[in-house]
Amino acid sequence: MGYIGTPIDTRNQFQSLQGKRFNGDGSTTDFTLDVAPSSTLDLEVFVGNVRQDPNSAYTVSGTTLSFTGAPPSGTNNIYVVHQAKSVGTIDVPALGVSTASIQADAITEAKIADDAVESEHLNNNIISGQTELAATPADTDEFLISDAGTLKRVDYSYIKGGGMNLVATANVTSAAANVSFDNCFSSTYRNYLMVADMVVATNAATIEWRYRNGGSDESGNYYNQYFTRYKTDTDDRYKHRTSSVNSFRTGVTLKNATDEVSFAFSMYFHNPNNGSTHSKLYMNAIFKDNDGYSGNLNGIGAFHAQSAHDGIKFFPSSGNFTNATVRIYGLIDS
How far is residue 48's CA from residue 37's CA, in Å, rounded to a whole number? Predict the structure, then answer.
């Protein structure tokens, strides 16, 4: 028949109250129950039909009921009624706990198994080996260090030291009238180093070079140089000095060798992009002259005008280059 009120909960189980009787002997204080209660308040204990005080007359531990004083002798003169009894347990179903059900910061490291978190579950702001940088670090890129056993992060700007960065390259493998660079010098670096080797196509050609600015040669008569050269065919030292000409010039007539380098050198540029000074350079080179003798050339050059050079161009006095390899590096001050 119908009824008014809350629907009956048919999901839970119900059991009648459970009890048990014991015989007292005047000396026994411990008796074994069939069910372990949670506390003394879950029991009604009677001795000789007198209810006992759960706060002082007895204690429970598991299924053991212990009286503070031995009940008197009698048959079934002790009986116990369970007021509350567990009838089952309810397990959390699979997938039953959502993220919203977990309190923030409730999961501690003790609850996470070792090696349970893989790199794909880490954000990219976690310092790990998950992503390759594949470039020179920025000043704000961070490294991990151990400071007396404590891991700390430190910006690259604090640990980077002096060195050099490659800023321009050229590889000539066929006839070329010149090897030219634009925007290789800038305010990013104060000084630069060039390492190069070149082969001329025309025998007895020399190598010259000019600074560039804004995509054009600086061809005014501002170039001054003093070079000293030595050759293997003589003990004499040759001096080559020019001033107020429109290019730097080695003064060495080179061999158009196809099996070896005509001219290989390193060149140091001091402050070429500073427009308020006269830029200077130092060169050290080895060469093969047009007679087949090897030699060494070193010396200095200066541009006697204020100009912020941003490029440089090399060219033979006649003909072309057949091969050339050039690397330009910016030198880090700190």
Answer: 22
Domain definitions of the chain by residue range: 19-82, 164-332
Other beta carbons within 10 Å of 97: 10
Structure tokens of 273?
Answer: 């992009």
CA-nearest of 207, 196, 219, 181 to 310 is: 181
Output DSSP code: residue 134: -
Written as six digits, the tokens of 207 are: 């190598």
How many C-alpha atoms does 186 have within 13 Å on its Cβ side?
Answer: 11
Which residue type does 227 have? F
The pTM (predicted TM-score) of the whole model is: 0.57
Q: Are 326 and 290 in contact (CB under 8 A)?
A: no
The answer regarding whether domain 164-332 maps to CATH 3.40.1390 reads no
**Cα 113-116-117 angle, rounded to 5 deg:** 130
* Per-residue pLDDT tens listing for the chain (334 residues): 566 665 555 555 555 667 899 999 999 999 999 888 888 988 899 999 999 999 999 999 999 999 999 999 999 999 999 886 655 567 778 888 888 888 888 888 888 888 777 766 767 666 666 678 888 888 888 888 888 888 888 888 777 767 889 999 999 999 999 999 999 999 999 999 999 999 999 999 999 999 999 999 999 999 999 999 999 888 777 888 888 999 999 989 999 977 788 999 999 999 999 999 999 999 999 999 999 999 999 999 999 999 999 999 999 999 999 999 999 999 988 6
Cα(112)–Cα(292) distance, rounded to whole angstroms? 76
Distance from C-alpha of 255 to C-alpha of 262, rounded to nearest angstrom:
6
Q: Which helix (H) or strand (E) holds 157?
A: helix 156-159
- Report the candidate in 235, 263, 258 with the shortest Cα–Cα distance to residue 248: 263
Looking at this protein, which amino acid is placed at residue 30?
D
Phi-psi region of 169 (alpha: psi -120 to 50; beta: other; left: phi over 0): beta
Strand partners, 327: 169, 195
Between the CA of residue 306 and those of 190, 209, 267, 268, what are the distances in Å? 15, 18, 20, 19
